[in-house]
């Protein structure tokens, strides 16, 4: 039996299809891995729901999650360039709003998806 020196830090966020986690003031549920369209940036289709009391009171009648795009990449990847562009353009109307962004020290991305035929 081989011993592995690989261990996942306890504060690691693991992102995979069907994962659910909190990011900022939002609850995120990963629906689908979309791909690796931009260098060093993974894209996921997600449902998200605000956890802030103000948003929950405002949207009390419609508590269903919203569909969104989660993009995960390194701090110096295309995401950094996008944040810089968004900052310079401020609230330019042709760019979809960014609801949140954060920096995490440890993220593990699992792009494997379980296909229904494997469940038999």
UniProtKB/TrEMBL annotation:
EC numbers, comma separated: 3.1.3.16
Root EC class: hydrolase
Domain of life: Bacteria
Keywords: Hydrolase
An example molecular function term from Gene Ontology annotations: protein serine/threonine phosphatase activity
Name the record gives this protein: Protein serine/threonine phosphatase
Top-level taxonomy: Bacteria, Bacillati, Cyanobacteriota, Cyanophyceae, Oscillatoriophycideae
């Amino acid at each position: 039996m081989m011993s592995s020196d690989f261990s996942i830090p306890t504060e690691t966020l693991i992102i995979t299809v069907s994962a659910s986690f909190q990011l900022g003031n939002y609850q995120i549920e990963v629906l689908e891995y979309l791909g690796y369209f931009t260098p060093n940036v993974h894209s996921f289709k997600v449902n998200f729901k605000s956890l802030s009391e103000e948003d929950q009171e405002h949207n009390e009648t419609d508590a269903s999650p919203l569909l969104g795009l989660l993009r995960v990449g390194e701090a110096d990847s295309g995401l950094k360039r996008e944040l810089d562009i968004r900052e310079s353009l401020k609230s330019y109307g042709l760019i979809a709003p960014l609801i949140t962004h954060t920096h995490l020290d440890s993220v593990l991305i699992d792009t494997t998806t379980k296909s229904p035929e494997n469940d038999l």
